[in-house]
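Chapter review: from sequence to fold.
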Amino acid sequence: MVNGIIYAVGGWSRATVEAYDPATDTWTTKASMPTARSGLAVGVVNGILYATGGSGDPTAGTTVEAYDPATDTWTTKASMPTARWAHGVGVVNGILYAVGGSPGGASMGAYDPATDTWTTKTPMSTARWGLGVGVLADLLYAAGGVGSSRMVEAYDPSTDVWTTNPPMPTARGELAAAVVDGTLYAVGGANQESFLATVEAYDPIANTWTTKAPMPTARVELAAAAVSGRLYAVGGIDGLNYERVATLEAYDPATDTWTTKASMPTARCQLAVGVLNGILYAIGGSDGQGGPVATVEAYDPASDTWTTKAPMPTARWGLGVGVVNGILYAVGGANNESFLTTVEAYDPATDTWTTKASMPTYRSELAVGTVNGALYALGGANTEGPLSTVEAYDPATDTWRTKASMPTGRNGVAAGVQGGRLFAVGGFDADYRPLATLEVY
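The token string follows.
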């Protein structure tokens, strides 16, 4: 895209260039590329569009041609050192990076338009083609592709270093996650053998996982939240009697110890939790009879007591909860009849609920996180199976927008937010296999 205009370039040995103007919903044919090719990748630097690589004639794999929309003309630029097609391109601070592809493998080259020169950079750890490339906060992310469909690596141009988000040590789904003092904790869940008490901590700065003291109660379909430097694990189904529990256990990272706290008034699984003003709210879920509940109960860590609050308008399980500007939002889920798109907002000041704009995609067993005042709904499942869908809700306008999908579709996923980034961890795939996957948005 250049100046709000979308350009479709080449494809299947074509040199065709067509421009789409969203303001008028019209297409215009532009000057053709000098070299017809498919499998190319395009990046934009300072209003100039650069078409790199591709397949076609023998030289297409290294070809670089630049298009100036102001003059509708093309110029040939310095060829890439490495031939590649089905590769990815990203632009960071005025430099264009060409990544992977075939036969490029794991290699990466950097192009400086100011000097019309290429420099070879540190390769990815994994060779792949058909990958996706995106740029966020001056980091270049290479996701998926043929050769490593679940791999996500982040490249920092300032250090010329690639980083892979490592998987959890223990693959699992229907776990819970929370962030305490900059560390992401993955708690409980299940694999194909058993329910788990496992606790593993991810440090985003060191990019490492550490095993921590297990929960006293192994369980699945629980919820977790952080309050005042402690992690609280709430409800779920236990691994001993396979019953819904009201259990509340608190973890202190400073001592790596767990303490049992006052139980919830209502035993339930597949609930969600949110924290407002130091109070933990346990929302919805499935009760001992297997039905959805609208129950809302509030826990005060200072007094170790629970209080019953106004129920949600819509009873449901497998929902997600996020907090924005002092309001708690309950998103999606399911009842015993259908998956839901329902969004309802709770104001603790008045103990009242309000219905909000529905989520575009109906689903349950999703995860929710809040970044910069927007609420993000990740993954989950519906009648189509596990989802990679990501949708963002803006409370200020009461509107939803579709965002870039996760590389890995999954339900029973957990999420946490740290440093303006959203971490999606674990879950189950379409064959109900537990995942150790960690992906960062």
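Two observations follow directly from the output. The first strand starts at residue 6 and ends at 11. The chain has no helices and 44 strands.
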